[in-house]
## 1
Amino acid sequence: MRELPKFNKANLSVEQLTIEISNWLLENDTEDLPEAIEFALASFMPYIASQRMSLVRLTEDSRFEGALTVAAPGYNRVSLPAQGIYSPYLEQISKGELIIAEGNIDQILNTDEVLLAEMQGIIAHIMVPFRVRGKIWGGIAASRYVGSIHWREDTIHRVRSFGQILASTYERYAYWEKLQQKNQQLELLSRHLMDNQENERRMLSRELHDNFSQRMALLTIKASSLSNTLIVDSEKQSAHELHDEIQGLAKDMQALSRSLHPAILEDLGLFTALKSECRRLSTIKDIDIQTLFDPLPALNKELSLNLYRILQETLNNVAKHAQASAVFVSLQYSDTDLHFQIIDDGIGCDLNLNQNNGSIGLISIRERAQLFNGSAVFSSPEDGGFIVDIMIPAIKEYYE
């Protein structure tokens, strides 16, 4: 939360306070708004000579949704009821009816409600309902334990105006909170889909290795035996070619099995796995690949696997689209973050990928980075080339 301003009732009118508070609330980070609203309520209390205030939010069916409440030193805050509760008091608010008690709190609350809200000893109470976007949003309440039992008309007007400012601020926070929840759900879904994808890859890799690779080995032996039994040179040559094709297919199948489930990552570690993937592309496409890796603390398996998949996806894109002759891969570590960068000297890309979603492969790279609270930035300089820039914060749980 931004630094708390200091308000002095002696040299600041209630109108000036409202403007100052409104501007200050706009400057606060969204996640800090509940605490900021409570500070605003506490700052406003002396201006209306109250000892307790609450901002109350109702659901569309007139039930209690939530509240922010403050009290002056020496007094207790309102005891909040359970979410979803219904009462005659709340029904009055939902109808937009001003609720005023001057001297006798039993005029507006029954005994149960007084006990529930811990309102014993209050000599004056007001609840001012107001609308947001044309609907009753809730209300702002103020209570006095000492002082005048009467509420002036200008005080009621000021309380309503102040409440509307706070309600708009709270709506901003509520919208942000819902967005955060949806983002968390999407992140969980993305993580779940990637986990399932890895499980399927692992199963397919095992099937290729345990079943099809063995069968391919048997075919290779049979093809070799066949060539040895033939006498005619042309037939013998054809058998040799068949044997070579089967061997090539077996090697391709082994490479596919390794790419689906990189056992090298678990056996020899991240650096070796990354360099192996670089050598694979260098061999296939005759691309010069240079690597620069800082010493790293041991990363957990999930982060290691996702860094490997990011490199794998990026190098596949280079092989398919970049027409590159060289690639530079760096992995740098500091106390604050892990910086993973892949640069090629290919033809680049015309898309503004920082503003557009880009290809499915780039979306996958971005999602993998976001799983670890990181970021993925894609850029293509005017003179060609393409840069994948990954930043992962150095959070302790990402390391073993």
Note: Confidence is low (pLDDT under 50) at residues 353-357.
## 2
Amino acid sequence: MTIITSRFERRAGKGGNAESADRESTLGVARRLSARRSDRHRGEPWRDWAAIGLLNHAQMLAVALIAPSWPWLLLAALPLSLTFATGTLTILHDAGHRRFSRKTWPNVLATQTAIPLGFFVQHWTLKHRVHHRSSQVYPLDEATRNTTVRMHPGIERKPIHRYQHFYAWFLYAFAWVGELDSQITYVRKGNIIGLEVPPFRVRLGQWLFEKAFWALVISPYGILLGPGKFALYFMVAMSLGAVQAAIVLVVGHINEGLYAPDEQPAPKDWSKHLVATTASFNTGSLPMRWLTGGMTHHLAHHLKPVAPRHQLPQLHTTVVAKVVQASGLPHVEYPTLTSATISHYRRLKELGHSDGGPPVVTGPTAT
């Protein structure tokens, strides 16, 4: 992923002398800000792993020891849902980019211990690699193949989609069901488009190992609190967290002003493709950047996937600004997550009522 992006930037810099010098300056900033594959600022992901893991396990342990009544149990699921969502956007995402280590097992260890939600890290890493390689390209990017909520014009429009801007928010709570189905399908069929996958026996062994690891991490809480009460507490927190994480992710790609491509871009058009398919929000908020795992600077992340989160604001004002200017396209950026979510609502409505077409920019954008 990073190699493709860097190759494009080098090719793009071979234009006229003044333009070439300007782009070389931009590349210089990019090189200083972006981590090499041998040095991905390991301290940041492990620091966040410790903080988020402590928050999650402290909450689950407190609830297991106190054993509150049903109303208080459901109320206690609210703060856990927030740290679950933050962990998904941060720890799982870092693991998907191998930021904890080049080796597989530290990334699996970090995810299963800090956010024990049953993720299949080795499978998610492959899916995410395809997402960065073919962002929003139908049908390569798995996110574009959803048929219940029509998120891409490539999906056949059905009568039920006319109401998707109302019911999608409820379905986001069950994103974990879709994730589990994706895991099982991968184990059975090895369906990762464009990537070589391990044989069936290896996939099955990986999946069983990660599920056993996950069960080992959460089972003490179920024993202390009781299986029924803990299952309710855990699933409510997981479902509410799924809504929060899903919203942060979908507003970055399924929104007004963004294109929905159906073919892989040529290397020379790679950065332009990212500008056309990616939105950012709340770029000036440090708390929001931490809570969303840096997804506030979604375009900066796609341009430099392994850049640490603390470098995203500088990338946003340097590399992103230059790439947007060179693309000739508007940079879709929302001042708040709320405004981005409202615009996503309108995009869902548009996709439910029409077969798509060139994007119409009606939300707040920066050009």
Note: The chain is about 65% helix and 0% strand.
## 3
Amino acid sequence: MPYIFQRHPRYVVVFAVFVICSFIYLTTPSSPNVDPSSFVGLPGDPALPSRVQHAERAYQKVVEKRQELIKKHGPTPSQVVMFPPDQNPWPAYTVWDFFPAAFNCPHELERIGSLGDGGKWTCGVSRIAEKPDCIIYSFGTDWESAWEASVLENTEHCEIWGYDHQTKSFGRQVSHASFSNKHRTHFTSHVQLGPIDKHASGDDPKLYKLDTLMNKNGHTFIDILKVDIEGYEFDTLKAIVRPYIQNGEPLPFGQLQIELHVWSKKFSDFLTWWEMLEAAGLRPVMMEPNLVYVNYNRQSGAELAEYTFLNIKGDNIFTSDAVRAYVPSEDTDEPKVQFIRHGPRE
């Protein structure tokens, strides 16, 4: 034994610990270095769940205030007028004051597309910017596709399925020959989203339920669903949403952009419809009255409004990181796991 160990026995213990630790370090298989780029989609966002939870707590406070406002101007829903007349006592509200966009978008909230008619307030476009299986449905284009064109320009893989019962193609922003992302679009004319399937040879327009079109296209989930179907949205959304509530399942879309047309609607009916959306997990993050309609229909009220909703139930790219998946590098023999919401796919 070396002289130093005889003079200082405690060094033996230190040396032994060093030898043992070195042996463990050298013989333990090292973990592979994981390149962050091998994760498809956005980097992890550990604060996302807390932001969603905070937004939900704030939203529920607004729901309570809605009931207080109903009592003030009702006191029952059936007694609340959608748009009070211009006469004494001039109650200071419209129907939209009961349904504010009070859920805070947990990402950036951006005006996508043109200013004015055609553009849409969209929550978290960055979340789908590199998403390989990004699916978007757009119903009711009416020659205006500024939003669709901008979404395609701001994402790498999103594909848009468009439908309209009158127009034969997307608007000029997408259909123009110079538009470079046209290959990621699909359009079907003489088709309208509806509460039932009614598309026999003699039917025009042809009505399709949402799940029918999704099955036809081979889709199980839609990242953004855009709907402008001129008043038919109430029966149609009811037909879409109710089965999922009854089965306790999350809706098959992550974000809903919809124009509401409350022509001849009663407040109590609208309230029931809205509460159904809430029960399904839909939360409004943005609302914009259609002032173009107000300008050209001065005798009518502000009966049209654009809403953007997030779906907070289930896992979707806007409210959860659970959809991210590890994709091995090209030089490994491991099978790839694609970024598919409902599990791996070849």
Note: Residues 28-41, 325-329, 334-346 have pLDDT under 50 and may be disordered.
## 4
Amino acid sequence: MTGGRKPEAPIRQPAVGTVRRTSPNVTAVQLPDPPKARRRLPVRQILCLLPLVLVAVVAVRHRDVLAEGFAHLGTAEWPWLLAAAGATCLTWVAAACCRQGAVVERLPSARLLATQFAAGAANHLLPTGLGASAVNLRFMTVCGLPLARSSAAIALYLLAESIGRVALLAALLLAFPDALRLSTLLPEGAMAPLVITVIVTVLVVAGVLMLIRRVRTTVVSFLRTALGEARSVHTRASRAFALWGGAFAFPALQAAGLVAVGEALGLDVPPLHMAVAYLAATVAVALVPTPGGIGSVEAALIVALVAAGGPAAVATAVVLAYRIITVWLPILPGALTLGALVRWKVI
């Protein structure tokens, strides 16, 4: 025996089948039921259905335009209408090319094209440019681009598309100076208030930038990011070609769609003059913040086609039929695509 310590006695196990008896002095305490988990609001499901609700609201508000537009389509020459539909489909391809050209990283092609189709529907439901920009911003951030670079890519796309549209308009006006009767586009005396408004807006923006340091710092930081992104894109020939090729092709295809509808309905205006009218109207209406330009685009296009020499009745029919093809026919499939992309977490 070593150490003088006795071995510990083994712990006795209770006999099989015995039941422990509770002490009569112990009071049982009823534990409260665990709190039920609160049901989370199905935000993603709501976002999937929201585009369809907005489509229904917009369609009801413009039901008279829809009815009249479809009536004009019934009297048109269908080969030209198919050409207009084909040009409209190619605008989404051009937009996808331009979006890809605005970033250095390669974006998934199929999802990028589907996003442009969905962005077109969003653009007709929200003020001009905001819907498409929001959808594409979300798409690029999901693809892994930082928010600052995604925003810079959006700005570069908008700048390139605006330059392409204005450059095409300027080139066509130089080639066909008599394409539009500019005196009919603006009422007499309307130019002076327009110029004053532009000058006041520029002065207000400049004043805000000079007086509010936080705004000035944010704008300068964003401009640095945007300029760096633009330099990076233009160091790669494929990206620069996609950016500027898409920027010029997008408005050209839109104008081609209007020309095809004009030919389908027998508008007595030369095709290139119709293209000038379209570009002039869309440049003018870009400053009007209506959802997808609905209402303002129709009015501007009718005025521009009349200024190009077309009869008012036929010009109205052409514009309504054109908007049916480019806005109302794709808007429901586009909204469904938008909802599907939200559900699949592509955006």
Note: The chain has one domain: 44-343.
